[in-house]
TrEMBL record:
GO biological process: chromatin organization
CC per GO annotation: cytoplasm; nucleus
InterPro entries, sorted: BTB/POZ_dom, RCBTB1_BTB_POZ, RCC1-like_dom, RCC1/BLIP-II, Reg_chr_condens, Signaling_Regulatory_Domain, SKP1/BTB/POZ_sf
SUPFAM superfamilies reported for this sequence: POZ domain, RCC1/BLIP-II
Organism: Delphinapterus leucas (Beluga whale)
This protein's UniProt keywords: Cell cycle, Chromatin regulator, Nucleus, Repeat, Transcription, Transcription regulation
Function field: May be involved in cell cycle regulation by chromatin remodeling.
The name this protein goes by in its record: RCC1 and BTB domain-containing protein 1
Main localization of the protein described in the UniProt heading: nucleus
Length: 549
């Protein structure tokens, strides 16, 4: 274990770009597809995962959500469902971000500058006061001449790692988590010394009230609260200054993460160790017994390349060299005591879908691929003259399509095209039995699986769907018509449903007409209806008691 080692993966993890769908976090469903597409970095935080921050492709920073304790940094205490821009951070190129339970938010930029805001009851913002930070403010004391490369937050304390390997801590210190040798709160950043003096730290992590550090030679140190054994020292006594985790002396650790009260460590050989609280099975040992010292887990699994945990949850996750993602601990209320193989491709997805709250365990860096999926490519090429090999002409207007797509997607066209010899195949097909909007909507449906028409036009599309035996399209049309029914058009829609043999729609329209019988019978559509259908409606309405006093 002697001698310097190559720079470790704990720092590199902050810059890892992963294919993550931020839409898996419930709060991001508030954003439009265009806003989602612009996101390049993101974080979900808060005691209920009700706050979010994201960075766009042009390096603008936005926040939205509950704004508890001013944690959105918008300068006020107002919640917002609509993203608000944080002008103070736009263009700053955020590199590392962490959050506390207050919550307070801490971040560092690529230039090594640290900003903080939010809850400050214990001076966790590092500005020497306990006043809440309503907007991002640079953390200056002892950090102005440092280039900070990583930040970490516990419940109410903060840490920063400088490029030269020095660690600074501040905030709540009731259990010694600041590492100052006392339990007095630390109002401004203070260098963590003692056992870390002249040593080079390359990774930091915080539990709720504990702190951990990884050195460039693979050694691990811990300090702060240890009631559950989360420091891995073989006892449960709190530590006011850093103490080496001696049980890991024979391995070289290159990543460490902390849950609420448990710790995971990954070695350079892909071995995974766990210790601390185990109430929910978060250690992955097969039981719920706390561990005061590190235990090797996932022994029978392939090499582990990434581990994940965060102080606001009791969930653990790991990814193997083969791309398999495992989760254990508290997973949607269940206690999973052994690593469970998931269908996910990223440890981030575990926290989006199974952690409580559904926060992010790290700052997400989202890579948007340049290529389009098959579905996206089809959608893009609809009505494209450049690639089309067939045109439909309706009402004097052209729609450009691809014979192969129509043959694959529609039995009507498959039969039509097979009836032509290649040399007889027309380049332009005239359509006169349907309107242009209806036929365009149909062809577009074959490329996109969606329909966007007003209810009145959806009747014509329902006619087409019936004629072409497109049953799924029939159901979509009926759904559109149901959403658009009014007193004025109810009887016309009822008539259309009868004409196109749409039984479910017919029953829906009939009930609507009965519920609004007086108004419906005063519309022009009711009295313009042909005799047989009108008689049928009156007879059916009479049977269900519509005309009783």
């Amino acid at each position: 274990m002697d001698g310097a080692r190559p720079r470790l993966a704990s720092q590199e993890l902050l810059e890892t770009r992963v294919m993550v769908d931020v839409g898996k976090w419930p709060i991001f469903t508030l954003l439009s597809p265009q806003e989602i597409a612009s996101i390049r970095k993101a974080c979900v935080f808060g005691t209920s995962a009700n706050e979010a921050l994201y960075v766009t492709d042009n390096d603008e920073v936005f926040v939205f959500g509950l704004n508890y304790s001013n944690c959105l940094g918008t300068g006020d205490n107002q919640s917002t469902l609509v993203p608000k821009k944080l002008e103070a951070l736009c263009g700053k190129k955020i590199k590392s971000l962490s959050y506390g339970s207050g919550p307070h938010v801490l971040l560092s930029t690529e230039d090594g500058v640290v900003y903080a805001w939010g809850h400050n009851g214990y001076s966790q913002l590092g500005n020497g006061t306990t006043n809440q930070g309503i907007a991002p403010i640079q953390v200056c004391t002892n950090l102005l001449i440092k280039q900070v490369v990583e930040v970490a937050c516990g419940s109410h304390h903060s840490m920063a790692l400088a490029a030269d390997g020095e660690v600074f801590a501040w905030g709540y210190n009731n259990c010694g988590q600041v590492g100052s040798g006392s339990t007095a709160n630390q109002p401004t950043p203070r260098k963590v010394t003692n056992c870390l003096h002249i040593k080079r730290v390359v990774g930091i992590a915080c539990g709720q009230t504990s702190s951990m550090a990884v050195l460039d030679n693979g050694e691990v140190y811990g300090w702060g609260y240890n009631g559950n054994g989360q420091l891995g020292l073989g006892n449960n006594g709190n530590q006011l200054t850093p103490v080496r985790v001696a049980a890991l002396h024979s391995v070289c650790v290159n990543q460490i993460v902390c849950g609420y009260a448990h710790t995971l460590a990954l070695t350079d050989e892909g071995l995974l160790y766990a210790w601390g609280a185990n109430t929910y099975g978060q250690l992955g040992t097969g039981n719920k017994n706390n561990l005061l010292s590190p235990a090797h887990i996932m022994v029978e699994k392939e090499r582990v390349i990434e581990i994940a945990a965060c102080h606001s949850a009791h969930t653990s996750a790991a990814k193997t060299q083969g791309g398999h993602v495992y989760m254990w601990g508290q997973c949607r209320g269940q206690s999973v005591t052994l690593p469970h193989l998931t269908h996910f491709s990223s440890t981030d997805d575990v926290f989006a879908c199974f952690a409580t709250p559904a926060v992010t365990w790290r700052l997400l860096s989202i890579e948007h691929e340049d290529f389009l999926t098959v579905a996206e490519s089809l959608k893009k090429e609809f009505d494209s003259p450049e690639t089309a090999d067939l045109k439909f002409r309706i009402d004097g207007k052209y729609i450009h399509v691809h014979k192969a797509v129509l043959k694959i997607r529609c039995e009507h066209f498959r039969s039509m095209f097979q009836s032509y010899w290649n040399e007889d195949m027309k380049e332009v097909i005239e359509i006169d039995q349907f309107s242009y909007p209806v036929y365009r909507a149909f062809l577009q449906y074959l490329y996109t699986d969606t329909v966007d028409l007003p209810p009145e036009d959806a009747i014509g599309l329902l006619d087409l769907a019936t004629s072409y035996c497109e049953n799924r399209l029939k159901k979509l049309c009926q759904h559109i018509i149901k959403r658009g029914i009014t007193v004025e058009n109810a009887f016309s829609l009822f008539s259309a449903a009868v004409r196109y043999d749409a039984e479910d729609l017919e029953e829906f329209c009939f009930k609507f007409c009965i519920n609004h019988l007086t108004e419906v019978t005063q519309t022009a559509a009711f009295w313009q209806m042909d005799g047989p259908l009108l008689k049928e409606f009156i007879a059916k309405a009479s049977k269900c008691g519509a005309f009783k006093n």
